[in-house]
Amino acid sequence: MHDMLSYIWTTVLLVVALSTLRVSSMRPGGLLSEAVRRDQVTRVMLPSGPSQGLEERAAPFRFYKNNTKKYLVESLPEMDFDLGELYSGVVPIDMNNASRGLFFVFQPRVGEPVDEITIWLNGGPGCSSLEGFLQENGKFQWAWGQFSPTINKVEYPVGVGFSIGESRARTEEGIAEEFNDFFFNFQKIFAISKFKIYVTGESYAGRYVPYIASGMLDRNDSNHFNLSGALTYNPTIGEFGWVQTQAVIYPLIEKYNNVLGYNSSFMAKLASIDQTCGYVDYRDTHVDKFPPSQVQPPKYFNSTVDADCDIWHAAYFAAYGANPCFNPYLITLQCPLQGDPLGFPSDLIYSYPNTPVYFDREDVKKAMHAPVDREWSLCNGNPFVEGQGGPQNLGDMSADPIQRVLPRVIEATRRVLVANSDLDFETPTTGTLLAIQNMTWGGLLGFQNKPVKPITITEPDLQYEAIFASSGFDDVDDPQGTMGVQHFERGLMWAE
Ligand SMILES: *[C@@H]1O[C@H](CO)[C@@H](O)[C@H](O)[C@H]1NC(C)=O
Ligand SMILES: *[C@@H]1O[C@H](CO)[C@@H](O)[C@H](O)[C@H]1NC(C)=O
Ligand SMILES: *[C@@H]1O[C@H](CO)[C@@H](O)[C@H](O)[C@H]1NC(C)=O
Ligand SMILES: *[C@@H]1O[C@H](CO)[C@@H](O)[C@H](O)[C@H]1NC(C)=O
Ligand SMILES: *[C@@H]1O[C@H](CO)[C@@H](O)[C@H](O)[C@H]1NC(C)=O
Ligand SMILES: *[C@@H]1O[C@H](CO)[C@@H](O)[C@H](O)[C@H]1NC(C)=O
Ligand SMILES: *[C@@H]1O[C@H](CO)[C@@H](O)[C@H](O)[C@H]1NC(C)=O
């Protein structure tokens, strides 16, 4: 058990601090802004291409075979370094009918091979997991310390990113089934068997991850679905229309108004909504109770009837007044607005001039074996075909994961991590913890004890060490120190 935790723990150290940078969007900005399309700018491609012969270069690759050849990524525009072993492309959900499939990126571990696969999913719903690949935990961003041995990312569900075919997303159970069909086919193609499988993701993937993991358990196939753990960052695992957002946003605003910068009359207005709409009472009853004194009542935010109680959106839109570079995924960011090769530096769509959206470039699509006729944007809009209905009115008809699938995955693996970063306006930490406190696993409701154990990072500063040294500042470069709080009960680890 200790070993297993330390493995997951290593994972968190490298990623949690930065995951706030870009948790995929799940509300207006993100979903609305996809309507904005920018002109394509043509760009001169750097000469690229391996100097060595392909077969020679690929000879040491573990998964390189006749039938995986077509997925090998030989080079990528703008990346003038050896990509190592990297595959991407579309694998059908049904091998007998290629009309619907999921797009994946597969980066085997650098160094000693391990028989493990970590699946990473971004959220939205409707946002592409290529964000994670390029900006959060891919080989390129994290070349100095891969957070997990093997990374495998998928554009999920159908309708997102480069995945092909019409979307049929209605329930999490249904799309998890499609994912697992795809994943089985993927393993067949890459001759993968008897690997340990970890399912991970962030934001709305807080719903995908437990449903996929639970679907894996249903398969009774330990050769292909040996689920060994799961991890989610800033996840929408509970009721997020009311509890994980509206009910908990005011304390976050109050704590960070030194950077958010709302004026005093607006703060007074927010405080009054917080009080009259029952959010204060709810927090008084349920926050910071270990063990929880009671099960939480059902909650639902009806955006028509409850419009006057929409403190979250009131504050969200006003935040741009005080700070035009407001980033709801990392509230401390100030101007200038940072250009983004994926065109999505916050909920605003922006990249530096002459920087087309990387994965929408034809040369990049070709290099990655992606459908060239498919327009790529970071978030494609809600992939759930009904568009409304379900517990959060997004057309996703499945129950909140805390109700059944997440407890099941924790009990089966005893190795699940839920982590939340504090500077996220979209999914505040208090709300995620409230969701956990309304979940029964291992026979008990919620955590029994208050999370207090510090996360102290004593590793040297690997990221900036060289810069400090070359600037003559090596003696002032400290390890990161205390970064947060960790807690473990009955197979579930929490980190904030
Ligand atoms: C791979 O393809 C080559 C050329 O088509 C063939 O000679 C070789 O036998 C194939 N290898 C396997 C393992 O199928
Ligand atoms: C493949 O699936 C599509 C729907 O995705 C369907 O329209 C088509 O008829 C199927 N083709 C075959 C050969 O079954
Ligand atoms: C599944 O993983 C467990 C450890 O998590 C391991 O003990 C077991 O042998 C694996 N099963 C298979 C079929 O690989
Ligand atoms: C998996 O095993 C359980 C319990 O043995 C059984 O109820 C279920 O039908 C099995 N599922 C499949 C897909 O074989
Ligand atoms: C809390 O859990 C109970 C029992 O599963 C459920 O009925 C209720 O809707 C949940 N409340 C919230 C806010 O998640
Ligand atoms: C919200 O409330 C209105 C008015 O009562 C009702 O017509 C509508 O169906 C509700 N929406 C949902 C999704 O429950
Ligand atoms: C305070 O902020 C609100 C929301 O941004 C704005 O509508 C209002 O005009 C501001 N009041 C003053 C006095 O600046």
UniProtKB/TrEMBL annotation:
EC number(s) reported in the record: 3.4.16.-
Record flagged with keyword Hydrolase: yes
Record key words, sorted: Carboxypeptidase, Glycoprotein, Hydrolase, Protease, Signal
Signal peptide: 1-25
InterPro entries: AB_hydrolase_fold, Peptidase_S10, Ser_caboxypep_ser_AS
PANTHER family named in the record: CARBOXYPEPTIDASE, SERINE PROTEASE FAMILY S10 SERINE CARBOXYPEPTIDASE
Protein name: Carboxypeptidase
Protein source organism: Exophiala oligosperma
